[in-house]
Design goal:
mainly alpha, 73% helix, globular
């Protein structure tokens, strides 16, 4: 029962993925569609792989997804990303969570 509310792993994943974006994908790349396509694809592949690995070990209920999104957004916002870039990246990662579950 209480495991349903234990969102530590989801928060940590959100922080880890956001940190990878901050380190490897400058904001202008996150918002551009074509100009930095190869670099952006590398980062998106890494995110997809990490999320896939996470999905194999845990399932994400609604509460955990909210906590993940909050952690992810706050880290990107705290790193100076604009709302448009945050929304682009958040939409991508949220579409991958428990996609195959």
């Amino acid at each position: 029962m209480f495991n349903w509310f234990n969102a530590d792993a989801a928060k940590n994943l959100g922080h880890l993925l956001a940190e990878h974006i901050v380190s490897n994908l400058p904001q202008e790349m996150a918002m551009e569609n074509d100009r930095f396509l190869i670099k952006k694809q590398e980062v998106l592949q890494y995110l997809t792989m990490k999320i896939y690995q996470f999905n194999l070990m845990q399932s994400m209920n609604f509460y955990k997804k909210v906590q993940f999104a909050k952690s992810f957004k706050l880290h990107l916002a705290g790193s100076g990303f604009q709302e448009r870039a945050i929304s682009n990246m958040l939409g991508f990662v949220m579409s991958k969570l428990n996609k195959n579950s």
